[in-house]
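If your schedule permits, I should be very grateful for your opinion on a structural question. Thank you for your consideration; the sequence and its tokens are set out here:

===
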Amino acid sequence: MSYARKKKATVRRGSSGGDAKGRKPGGRKKTTKKKVTRKARRTIESRPDGVRLNKYLADQGVASRRAADTMIEEGHVTVDGVTVEELGLRVDPQDQVIEIDGEPLAPSKSDRKRYYLLNKPAGVVCTNERRETRPRAIDLITDRAKGRIYTVGRLDEESKGLLILTNDGDFANRVMHPRFGVTKTYAVKLRGRISDEDVQRVREGVFLAEGRAAQSRVLIKKRSREYSHLEVTLHEGKNREIRRIFLSVGFKVVELRRSHIGTLSDRKLKIGYWRYLELDEVQDLLALSAGEEPESAPKGRGRKKTQRRTKRTVRKAGSNRRGSQ
């Protein structure tokens, strides 16, 4: 037998179908499993000297603080690419990238606070919702440098009158929250003749769905069989509060206009126009919120109220959504 045949026969007798290294035909080469290392879950650390994330979102006009908390809980907010899960997180907007559904919120290039006074027309809504198709109050402010502003409190769509817009969250809270006592005065037109008894009920505070409404100051300006004209002053501003108050005593509000916010008046500011708030006006409102007498208020009997002599520039409200935040 030749050497080649002898070797072939030996392989057939001495193997079980494997090769010289003991591997079966068609078998896979044994490989050592690589250890898979999972990446550690990224977290974001709170900045002790920073601002609370929900407050920053509210100051940027994204949503109220409560709504901002809901956005955080639902995973819509990221900081430096990390989805935020902690409600009390403090951030540094100048040093960190904050995004809403992937859209970054650019920090203001300037720390300058801005304050506007708008005489809102009917049909305009007080929201920063970008998908809103109705005219928004923030779009009526035509100042190109306004940045991201929002309304201080609200007026419902049908109502007219004074509305403050700003980017100053602390100022907005002091003017808006009832505990600071900044009054809002409204000219109210009712259908029908309201009685003295019903007016007194409104003054003492009627019951609404969420509880008893606070006492209010009510002056009767004019009454006839068809309509009643009143002046109502409130310290709070619940949703459609005046309309619901008078509806509870049987009268429908057919026209509502806010004429005063603290020391501010709608004099010389027509419906559909806006102007900048002056520094002394801002300081007066802050003084009222602190329980102090405004500097421009009369300080003696017969003394005239001091006012700045500079002419205030009044601008017609815009209706173009282009360029708005």
